[in-house]
Amino acid sequence: MQRVLSKTYAERDVSDVETHVRDTVRGLGAATPVEEEQLVAKGIFLVRRIARALPPEASLQEALRDHLAEGLSALRADEGPSSGPPAATPTRRAA
């Protein structure tokens, strides 16, 4: 796969953020190549947000271990395939 970023992006104790995110995305299970690339791009931004939220002495590697897969799964679920309009919710009818 072609890299999303033209240069290697290092953040704190993660030497290559894109590779780290790509490995995590692959660990989530089957994804189309297009979906994988979108998740990698969004995952890179997610890593940046997590890094900015951490105190300076905190390990980004540890934070990503705890939160990156969860965050990517949430992004994936939010953008799941659209199968048309949502199903109607059953309603109770008065007898």
| H/E topology pattern | HHH
Largest sheet: none
* Inertia-based shape: globular
Structural class designation:
mainly alpha
Question: How many E strands?
Answer: 0
Averaged pLDDT: 85
**Spans of 5+ residues with little confidence (pLDDT < 50)?**
82-89
> How helix-rich are the residues, as a percent range?
40-55%
Rg over alpha carbons: 18 Å
Number of helix segments?
3
What features would you describe in this structure?
This protein is mainly alpha-helical. The protein is built from three helices and no strands. It has helices at 17-27, 33-53, 60-78. Helix 1 crosses helix 2. The longest helix has 21 residues, at 33-53.
List the helices and strands and how they pair.
Layout (H helix, E strand, L loop, with lengths): L16 H11 L5 H21 L6 H19 L17
Helix pairs in contact: 1-2, 2-3
Brief sketch in words of this structure:
The chain has 95 residues and is an all-alpha fold. The chain is built from three helices and no strands.
Which features would summarize this protein structure in a list?
mainly alpha, 95 residues, 54% helix
